[in-house]
Amino acid sequence: MSNYKKNSLTLKGAVALGTGVMIGAGIFALLGQVAELSGTWFPYIFIIGAIVSGFSAYSYIKVSNAYPSAGGIAMILIKAYGKTTLTAAASVLMALSMIINESLVARTFGSYTMQLFDVESTSLWVPALGVALLIFAYIINISGNKVIGKTSLFMAFVKITGIIVFAIGGLWAAHFTLGDLLPASATAAEDDYSAASYVGAIALSILAYKGFTTITNSGGEITEPHKNVGRSIIISLLICTVIYFLVAIAVNASLSIPEIIKAKDYSLAEAARPAFGNYGLYFTVAIAIIATISGVIASIFAVSRMTAMLTDMKLIPHSHFGMSGSVQKHMLLYIVVIAITLTILFDLSRIASIGAIFYLVMDMIIHWGVFKHLRKEIKANGLILITALILDFIILIAFLWIKASSDVFVVIVSAIGIVLIFAGEKWFLHYKK
Fold this sequence. Notes:
Elements: H1 11-29, H2 31-38, H3 42-66, H4 72-81, H5 85-113, H6 125-141, H7 145-173, H8 183-186, H9 195-209, H10 213-217, H11 225-254, H12 257-262, H13 267-312, H14 327-345, H15 348-374, H16 382-406, H17 408-432
């Protein structure tokens, strides 16, 4: 992989990268989990998640428009806090949440591919296929920016078109009417979901949109970055919001909530069965495969850029381990090895939960830093920044409450991970001095 190249990503290419990451994880990996926490309201949870993500995106857009960089998240943190433990730890949290996203999408690829065969979704083939996808994505990424850009643009077009066809076809097959937009008309009013559960669902939906940070991390390579970074983020969020809502409504019209929950790792494929039969299943699985492949390629591309920059700035340790080549190539390998490990060890639900916790903590650090240290310099609206911070805090607390009640292991692993990251970075920065 070559060094950073200015103007190597067009506006279309940047949008393709952003939607590539978001759609790969969001609609295929998270729809069933969001439905499990929010019932028939889950299509609207994705709209709320988009609104919250829009507030979050404001901080990234304002700083990136002023200071576009190939390591956007790290650059924002350094502008706000300097080369401190907080900057280094928050950057690592962001990088890890992106790597976790790769594992999430990789296992989703395995789950959907297995629908073509008469094999249990708990089969070892699911992580095995996920590992194979990560290795393939690594090979594509070491081929350089041009291959990545062309691959991402083509796959983004195919999967977005395919998902829209699925959504419209599903609504038609289910004889959808405007009255079906009201959750209460689909089932009797549900009392099984607490307020915290709905907010927890929002946390997972936010994870489905966080791919916009992929664009921020490639800011220095986008043409006319002072304008196009913000434009590409907004366009990506709008495209994904419409697609998520249409698909969620189509799935909600085809399956009951218990059916969605039972097939939560491959809910779109399950929804295609009653609507289109086996041909619909094959079509949906094909689109899922394309979406997850492009999602992993785009995510590895972005996180390798970010971690390479962190290495250059001496914010994270690095060892060549006897390998030749550039730091970027080394980071690609390390990222894929970590993602493979997570793909083997954790299931979809736990991967998504840990990723959401890491991302929300990092996001809050970003908003506070921009509000406290940068808002006058970049002419940002303080009220929007504080609103984004408060929304993140409320959602994080509710999500932790839900997970502490249902799967405390996720909370423990996340807490230990955050403590180790902060302690490790404090020691490393002290050692470097």
